[in-house]
């Protein structure tokens, strides 16, 4: 069973298409990042998956049933963009309360608090928590009952770099346990190595849906190559290979993926005058800009 199958789903408000003919699947254990500018339709899509709002068209299959069905709700973990808790409760009380609602043991609630790094603060009132700590309670809440599908809307906003790293470790564990994960984020750099597939939305439409490698292949954005030479040799290298001499010791140029290996062997042929070579492929941020701008030009 595919945990999430979205087929030609649309959502309209009057004449406005918030989500426009989107098809997307998330398989068991897959981590899919959903990207898009403000207003692209990401939250609307998540709300439809949760059964909180009905699609105007298309078909949504969530954990083998309809969106919002009892079976689907019992097996979905959801972390909303902004998490609101009862400030007068402690982290432990709040999570145990959610656990009871989901018929999950209090032991799992306590274990999850520890897993998200709130062991020490568990018995303090949530109103004394920082934004990042609240976000961690939200994450723990989303993981109660070991969901088969996790929807995480901007899960790392408010988290510091170390906490973000820890967050993605948890996401990886979840996916290894078979949970399908759909997460939306504006923090592109952190997604590059931490997700299996990237889905890009723009003005309600899905512009791209593939691995970072495939996105790079089809965008054909150039690779940046920086060549570092011993003193006074950059001119000679630039004259033969091309590119721009940055100073006496370095040359910068770009190449396409298919020319990369040929270029490496031409650079190696210079022998010991080359000190180092750095190759930087298009970042997710470059790709995101490329796909969004292409869509704007086409419309
Ligand atoms: N109930 C509603 N009535 C009318 N328009 C709505 C409604 N809900 C969402 N929209 C519109 O649909 C579009 C998509 O909104 P949505 O919240 O899904 O975007 P998003 O991609 O999640 O944005 P962000 O990154 O800012 O959270 C926006 O233009 C929004 O104004």
UniProtKB/TrEMBL annotation:
It comes from the Bacteria. Residues 4-228 form the ABC transporter domain. CDD domains: ABC_DR_subfamily_A (cd03230). InterPro entries: AAA+_ATPase (IPR003593), ABC_transporter-like_ATP-bd (IPR003439), ABC_transporter-like_CS (IPR017871), ABC_Transporter_VariousFunc (IPR051782), P-loop_NTPase (IPR027417). This is ABC transporter ATP-binding protein. GO terms for molecular function: ATP binding; ATP hydrolysis activity. The keyword Cytoplasm does not apply. Keywords: ATP-binding, Nucleotide-binding, Transport. Pfam families: ABC_tran.
């Amino acid at each position: 069973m595919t945990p999430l199958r979205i087929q030609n789903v649309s959502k309209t408000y009057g004449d406005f298409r918030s989500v426009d003919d989107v098809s997307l699947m998330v398989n068991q254990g897959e981590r899919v990042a959903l990207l898009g500018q403000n207003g692209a339709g990401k939250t609307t899509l998540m709300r439809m998956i949760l059964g909180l709002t009905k699609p105007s068209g298309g078909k949504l299959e969530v954990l083998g049933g309809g969106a919002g069905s009892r079976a689907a709700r019992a097996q979905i973990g959801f972390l909303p963009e902004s998490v609101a808790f009862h400030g007068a409760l402690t982290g432990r009380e709040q999570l145990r309360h959610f656990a009871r609602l989901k018929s999950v043991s209090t032991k799992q609630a306590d274990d999850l608090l520890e897993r998200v790094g709130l062991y020490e603060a568990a018995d303090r009132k949530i109103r004394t928590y920082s934004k990042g700590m609240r976000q961690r309670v939200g994450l723990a809440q989303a993981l109660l009952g070991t969901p088969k599908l996790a929807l995480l809307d901007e899960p790392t906003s408010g988290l510091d770099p170390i906490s973000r790293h820890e967050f993605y470790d948890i996401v990886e564990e979840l996916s290894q346990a078979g949970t399908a994960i759909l997460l939306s984020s504006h923090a592109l750099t952190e997604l590059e190595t931490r997700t299996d597939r990237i889905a890009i939305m723009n003005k309600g439409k899905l512009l791209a849906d593939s691995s970072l490698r495939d996105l790079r292949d089809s965008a054909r954005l150039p690779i940046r190559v920086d060549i570092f030479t011993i003193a006074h040799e950059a001119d000679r290298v630039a004259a033969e290979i091309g590119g721009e001499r940055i100073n006496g010791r370095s040359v910068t140029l770009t190449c396409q993926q298919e020319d990369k290996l040929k270029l490496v062997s031409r650079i190696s042929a210079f022998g010991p005058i080359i000190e180092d070579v750095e190759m930087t492929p298009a970042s997710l941020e470059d790709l995101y800009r490329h796909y969004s701008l292409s869509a704007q030009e086409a419309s």
